[in-house]
Fold this sequence. Notes:
- The structure holds two protein chains of two kinds.
- Chain A is α/β, with parallel strands linked by helices.
- Chain A has three domains: about 5-145 and about 245-285, D-Maltodextrin-Binding Protein, domain 2 (3-Layer(aba) Sandwich); about 150-240, D-Maltodextrin-Binding Protein, domain 2, CATH 3.40.190.10; about 310-515, MetI-like fold (Orthogonal Bundle), CATH 1.10.3720.10.
- Chain A has helices at about 1-15, 20-50, 50-60, 85-100, 115-120, 135-140, 180-190, 200-205, 220-225, 250-265, 270-275, 285-290, 310-345, 350-365, 365-380, 390-415, 415-425, 430-460, 470-485, 485-515, and strands spanning about 60-65, 100-105, 125-130, 140-155, 170-175, 190-195, 215, 230-245.
- In chain A, strands 2-1-3-8-4-7-5-6 form an eight-stranded mixed sheet, sandwiched between helices.
- In chain A, helix 13 crosses helix 16.
- By secondary structure, chain B is an alpha/beta fold.
- Chain B has a single domain, classed as Rossmann fold (3-Layer(aba) Sandwich), CATH 3.40.50.300.
- In chain B, the strands form two sheets. In chain B, strands 6-7-8-3-9-10 form a six-stranded mixed sheet, sandwiched between helices. Chain B has a four-stranded antiparallel sheet with strand order 2-1-4-5, covered by helices on one side.
- In chain B, helix 3 crosses helix 4, helix 3 packs parallel to helix 5 (about 145-155) and helix 4 packs across helix 5.
- The interface of A and B includes residues 436, 437, 518 and 519 of A.
- The complex binds adenosine-5'-triphosphate (ATP) and magnesium ion.
- Magnesium ion binds near residues 40, 41 and 165 of chain B.
Amino acid sequence: METHCVGPARRDDEAGRPKRGRGARSLAWLLVLLVPFFGGVGAFKTSAADAWDEVSRAGILRYANDAEGGAPYIFHPPGSPDQLTGFEVDLAAAIAGRLGLKPAFVQNNWDVILPALNQGGSFDVVIAGIEWTPENRAKVALSRPYFAFGQQLVVRADATGLDSLDALRGKRVGVLSATASFRMLEKHGGIDARVYQDNVNYFRDLESGRLDAVLTDTPIARVNLAGNDKLRRAGPPFAPGFYAVAVRPGETALLARIDGAIDALLKDGTLEKIYRKYDLWDDGQAALTAWKPGGETTAEKHSALKEWGTYLPILLRASVTTIWVTCSGMALAVVLGLGLAIVRLYGPAPARWAAIAYIEVFRGTPLLLQIYFIYFGLAQQLGVRLSAGFAAVIALGLNYAATEAENYRAGIEGVPKGQLEASLALGMKRRLALRRILLPQALRISLPSVTNDFIAMFKDSSIVSVIALVELTKEYQIRAIDTGDYVGLGLMTAGIYFAMSYTASLGARALERKLGHDRR
Amino acid sequence: MIAVEGLRKRFGDRTVLDGIDHRQERGQSVVLIGPSGCGKTTFLRCLNQLETPDAGRITIADVTIEAGGRVDRERQRQLRLRAGMVFQQFHLFPHLTALGNVMEAPVRVLGRPRDAVEAQALGLLEQVGLSQHAGHRPGQLSGGQQQRVAIARALAMEPAVLLLDEPTSALDPELREEVRDVLRRLADEGSTMLTVTHDMQLARDIADTVLFFHAGTIVESGPPEQLFGDPVHERTREFLRSVRD
Lengths: 520, 245
Ligand SMILES: Nc1ncnc2c1ncn2[C@@H]1O[C@H](COP(=O)(O)OP(=O)(O)OP(=O)(O)O)[C@@H](O)[C@H]1O
Ligand SMILES: [Mg+2]
């Protein structure tokens, strides 16, 4: 009896609270949940005030680089895949040593390494071939240069007449994302620039004929051409530039120490020793000694929203790639998935097993892995050289076919049993019943799931940027890194994605309405 | 026209058909009655091979299938072509119009020319009183209309016999009469029909012979006046009492 009383009494108590009190309470909860998040951000901000104090107290110099960057910067030496070496690894150790610190490597994706630095927290400096350019100086504070490089064109050994940018008009030229080389190609215009995320794969694609040339920094060219008789330098290096260490803006104490350390390493020959070890020392390095501080920064801040007339068309052009990759990929997935579903349900035993294996393998492994496999793996092992766009469509199509097959299977199994029986009773063979009676109904049942997958593929298609296909997300990334306007460009990009997927779902709904057969 | 000898069917260790013998001449309309779960549907489904019997021999028109041994799909199909089936739940094809439902099999299975089939199908729809609804999907039709389309669909294949499983029992009472009407006409025209039903009105109207089915065997058979008026077996009397209440 007592328990009966307690229950309602409590409920009354709660119901007695004014409505607003409830809202305020849940808001308070939300704030409590968010505190660690904001608190965390705040902690980064305060620590950024003077990193040198913290660095010297900890005795550790945390430097960021991207181990995917490859030789000679930072790489796993052949035969010892769990070690890291490279001239920037040695340089980081030398700088840290000069300052009485221990170096600590922090892995970060190269093309977002400067924004990551500015967000603070996990590392203090970037030593990762950051170019001493006005664009970069506008984003971060840069040390005195530690390395002098130039731009180098690389072509296949048998290529002729491709030894200048002018000669490469209309040709496919591989280039690293967010680099001086990329900006140079963009400014030059008329060249089909293919953007890569790392320093290795464009040479593979050049060898295999997917590219006509690569524009890269001299040290990358030097290392990758050593002992490679399929490729050669085309023309002399040009557009000299420097690499420098990046620190967060305003951290003058830390920056001054790094400057001093590099100066000292240059004077006492340590730099020369390191660079000679990697066969990188050349006459160009004299520019390091001659270097004088100064030069202007591009202080101009871009706002993509204000300059939408420039950036919207760029993003829209990239969205065309997203659209055709997605539509073709989905077309492949739909057709292949249907075949798989039918074989899985009705095929003879071995074929059925094969279909099940296919579905499980493609659903159970990452799309990214499959893309690499199809694009690089097939070229390497079988000499099948798919273009990036084609490989992207194949990879998305093969991957999604597994999901679609399961959608169709659910659809076919969702058709009432009486439909097959009625068909058989009319003297139809199973194949005819499947084609004329079961599938048309199954497809209607599967349609909503297929639509969902179609919309999901619009988003998943961004993954194909790893094989140098600039679709919408990649274009966003490139422009955001260039301008620093992650928010404005992000809003535009999100708007375009939304427009695409909303159109797709409107179309699908119209299709569902048209095919709907149970309505009066 | 139909000859069944020693038909047996088991589901697991439950014997549903326990040695059925049945002969039916051309033009005869036979109605099967009996309590729920006694195996009537299973019997019809065995006749057109939607279930595989465990023993016995089935002949419809010129096709004979003997139980046991390998399933011969083509022979099953030949048998089905001679036995039109009308289901309790209609099982119309929801993505096709009424006309499409009727035309589908003659065009796709028999390979007859579309125009000829269309003319015949429209004729059949008219016979069942649905010429107005030829272009409607099943979802737009009432239950009685759907069942009449299903009958037209079966007739379009010009089967030797028509098997009907409770053709009126999924229908509201006021819709039953329109289906009974069609079936009366078919029986009068001399179609060979085997109808399972709990609708005693329908049984009286269309049967030349009524079979009383119980626990997987045929307990009693006779013309409707005799079986309904003066049944021989106690079980039959019990059953008829229960359906009258
Ligand atoms: N596929 C099946 N598997 C197992 N048991 C089945 C199957 N089909 C029917 N049965 C069983 O066989 C028996 C006969 O079923 P059947 O549908 O033939 O009866 P019925 O006479 O048509 O009954 P009703 O008048 O209710 O339609 C029932 O006990 C039923 O549960
Ligand atoms: Mg039944």
